[in-house]
Amino acid sequence: LDFSEDKNYKALNRITEYLQKKGIKICLITAPFQKDFREKRLDMNRFKKIRQYYKNLSLSKKIEYYDFVEYEFPVKYFADGTHLNLEGSKAFTEIIKKACKFI
Length: 103
Hints:
Elements: H1 7-21, E1 27-30, H2 35-40, H3 45-61, E2 64-67, H4 86-99
Parallel strand pairs: 1-2
């Protein structure tokens, strides 16, 4: 995947550079996918390059990155295969705060 000319890629670079100049802590994450969706209805190989891209970006910019795609989150926390519901969002926020040391 070549994102170098993508407007979102450029925006992400501008945002990370701005935040780093301001001394603001950055923590990139990928959110969890519901286990059944991930294992039975999705080709996870499609996401390997994207996940690797974020890993490489975090290494090159010295930013923390946590990949929660395969995190075992209860089904009750999902609105669908890839989106958390309100209860799941609140629970995941607590996990992120601890992982990224925002607390």
